[in-house]
Input
Amino acid sequence: MIEVAFSTGDRPPLIPASIYALGRNYAEHAREMEADPEPVVFIMPRTALRPGGGRIRRPEGCSLVHHEVEVVLALGIGGSRLSAREADDAIAGLAIGVDLTARDIQARAKEKRHPWARSKGFAGAAPISALAPWAPWKRRWKEIDLHLSVCGTRRQSGTLGQAILSPVETVMQLSRWFELEAGDLIFTGTPAGVGPIQPGEPCVAKSLALGMEVAFELWVP
Ligand code: MN
Output
């Protein structure tokens, strides 16, 4: 069973329910993808999650995987049409994660106006750290930093304050479109600087504020 641990030992691990992911939630990244900076949402299967990272097999038919470092929200309470207060109360924790994207498969899907599922949902497409509690960040979430390095070189760097939707706005908006439940995880989008990673290159996603990181590398059979 896939579980995501809390960094503080006093909480049981989160059993993931649905996994939502925002695209285009950082204007700079939307521009680098030549897309409008208006958040979109997609869904990943739970088997895409890879708590603790490790070795991730590059999917078949893909020769170009991009890294997208993201802050991930974990819900302890669900519901529909949540108020700001309810959305704030629903967030239980935060992690640092990566939305690995089979960019070549996604580009072909975009051309044909097909869904992104194959490019975003392969096994291990979403390495994720342990969860930090949300409570200390309720008023300071803009300071949460996120970084990604490949072979020790920094490729992406940003803060959650650069995102278009705040964590509470994200949960409120998703709760209008979907019925959320405890255990849901929400990847909140990536800052600028996405790029390719090659098999065998050591990658680390981290947040100094959250004190969380996850290391991973791609492999091909
Ligand atoms: Mn993403």
Remarks:
- The chain is about 15% helix and 35% strand.
